[in-house]
Write a structure and sequence with these properties.
With about 250 residues, this protein is of the alpha/beta class. Helices cover about 30% and strands about 25% of the residues. The chain has one domain: Vaccinia Virus protein VP39 (Rossmann fold, 3-Layer(aba) Sandwich), CATH 3.40.50. Bound molecules: S-adenosylmethionine. Its main location: cytoplasm.
Amino acid sequence: MAATRQSRARSSMIAGGGAEVAARSQEDSPGGADFAPSALGTRQHWDAVYERGLNNFQEYGDRGEIWFGEESINRLTRWMQRQKIPLDASVLDIGTGNGVFLVELAKLGFSNITGIDYSPPAIRLSGSVLEKEGLSNIKLKVEDFLNLPTELSGFHVCIDRGTFDAISLNPDNAAEKRKQYVKSLSRVLKVKGFFLITSCNWTKEELLNEFSEGLELFEELPTPKFSFGGRSGSSVAALVFQKTRDFSLDKPS
Ligand SMILES: C[S@@+](CC[C@H](N)C(=O)[O-])C[C@H]1O[C@@H](n2cnc3c(N)ncnc32)[C@H](O)[C@@H]1O
């Protein structure tokens, strides 16, 4: 059974083992909603998280949180292998955090990988993690996905693991920022390219609504299911979209 608003646990932004529930500020139809603003939607929050992460990594070699768990990474890399995405395909990890996904891609042989994050300590941490793994061929940049330089474009595959979730919690006009996200995605992804998103704040139906323009659902990746009170659902949605045409470029936001 498909996840429903009632059955779905919105265990938003699971950090440090704790779950914070993202409350909707209004009951809504898909796409009409905003989450209650949260510090998790701000750069200050992520700067503090990754400053701590960097200290932990330097002191104890601890890379920190694997968002959505290890299996969520395998789910994406398995899909890329099944789909026979060429090893030289250009891949962009949007909001790369500690860079753990980049490490797995590089270990599989992907050779044209870029990680961006708007948090400078995140990029310093991912740089240190990659260096320790002996992986030198990965591009890392401090970039705000909502305000990109023009040279970042033409990617075959874009990955989002929790970044759209974080942006949706921004206290300052999150609805506008979500629209800007879609525009940026349109800019960086090639036509026929794939966008893989893993989210714990949005249901499949809501993601389909958010990413309806110029993208079509290619595949839903199976995520762990839970049952409660006779209903079942997933706490995480993992979808693959394919870009069908350029979109959102000429419209005012
Ligand atoms: C939930 S964490 C996930 C990190 C990483 N994707 C992972 O799987 O470990 C969300 C990440 O998105 C980044 N982020 C949030 N808004 C961003 C933006 N506008 N541009 C770039 N990165 C952003 C945060 O700094 C943080 O690293």
